Amino acid sequence: MGKVTCKITKEVAVLSEKPNDFTKEVNSVSWNGDDAKLDLRSWFPEHDKCGQGITLNEEESKNLYEALGKGIDHGNE
């Protein structure tokens, strides 16, 4: 398997962060030179290393946006 490359094309949001540790982020990322897609994962502060995450294509991103717009029921009463 060859080396995986990534380039953050647009920083969208930092969801959480801990000083000197990973930050959980939503970004637009191009993997291996492909078109950029919405990406949710943890990153080291300099974006030189990342954890596992998920990448969504345009349709999946729209579906997630619509689902979040309906609100989230965490089951807490």
Give a written overview of the molecule.
Helices cover 16% and strands 45% of the residues. It is α+β, with helices and mostly antiparallel strands. Strands 1-2-3-4 form a four-stranded antiparallel β-sheet. The protein has one helix at 58-69, and strands at 6-17, 23-31, 37-43, 50-56. The protein has one helix and four strands. It has a single domain (6-69), classed as Roll (Transcriptional Co-activator pc4, Chain A). A hairpin with a 5-residue loop joins strand 2 and strand 3.
Query: Tell me about the biggest sheet?
Result: 4 strands, antiparallel
Mean pLDDT: 91
SSE topology string: EEEEH
Unreliably modeled segments = none
Helical content class: 10-25%
Biggest sheet strand line-up:
1-2-3-4
Structural class computed from helices and strand pairing: alpha+beta
What separation lies between the terminal Cα atoms?
48 Å
Q: Write the CATH fold name.
A: Transcriptional Co-activator pc4, Chain A
Question: How many domains is the backbone divided into?
Answer: 1
* Total number of strands: 4
Query: What overall form do the CA principal axes indicate?
Result: globular
What gyration radius follows from the Cα positions, in whole Å? 14 Å
Estimated share of beta-strand residues: over 45%
If classified by CATH, what would the architecture be? Roll
Briefly, what CATH class? Mainly Beta
Number of helical stretches of at least 4 residues: 1
